[in-house]
């Protein structure tokens, strides 16, 4: 599922946060899991982003390549980066839950990122 916010929280220990809509079909699964992964998509993966952004999509992984990471969380094939986290805290905030994870593993590749800005997908011009 697409998150509405993702950012770094701390360098020591390495912490990140994601904000999950309470109505998202994966909301309770994320809160019940000990680990989660953030898949940062490349510019060529807009269709995957659109698929995961639907709140009620129950078959989001059908036909997609992925593998379990060191924690068992799903890492999408060809993603620009993967960040695997152990869930350490969660806080309800309005219609979302803020989930904080401690980074246990990460990988990155040199490609263009998929950007979502002001209600649409965008590209970085170089």
Compact description:
This protein has 126 residues and is mostly beta strands. It has a single domain (5-121), classed as Roll (Pnp Oxidase, Chain A). Helix content is 11%, strand content 45%.
Descriptive keywords:
126 residues, mainly beta, Pnp Oxidase, Chain A, five-stranded antiparallel sheet, globular
Helix content: 10-25%
In CATH, the topology is named Pnp Oxidase, Chain A
Shape: globular
CATH architecture: Roll
* Beta-strand segment tally: 9
CATH class: Mainly Beta
Low-confidence segments, ≥5 residues, pLDDT <50? none
Output mean pLDDT: 87
Count of structural domains: 1
Order of helices and strands: EEHEHEEEEEE
Structural class: mainly beta
Task: Report the span from N to C terminus.
Answer: 30 Å
Biggest sheet, open or closed, and with what strands and sense? 5 strands, antiparallel
Strand portion: over 45%
Strand order of the largest sheet: 1-2-7-6-3
Radius of gyration: 14 Å
Question: Can you tell me the CATH superfamily?
Answer: Electron Transport, Fmn-binding Protein, Chain A
Please work out how many helical segments DSSP would assign. 2
């Amino acid at each position: 599922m697409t998150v509405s916010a993702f950012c770094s929280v701390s360098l020591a220990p390495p912490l990140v946060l994601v904000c999950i809509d309470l109505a998202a079909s994966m909301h309770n699964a994320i809160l019940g899991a000990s680990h989660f992964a953030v898949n940062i998509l490349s510019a060529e993966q807009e269709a995957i982003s659109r698929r995961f952004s639907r709140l009620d999509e129950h078959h989001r992984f059908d036909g997609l390549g992925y593998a379990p990471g060191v924690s068992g969380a799903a890492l999408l094939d060809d993603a620009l980066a993967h960040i695997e986290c152990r869930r350490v805290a969660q806080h309800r905030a309005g219609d979302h839950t803020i989930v904080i994870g401690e980074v246990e593993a990460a990988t990155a590749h040199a490609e263009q990122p998929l950007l979502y800005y002001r209600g649409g997908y965008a590209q970085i011009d170089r």
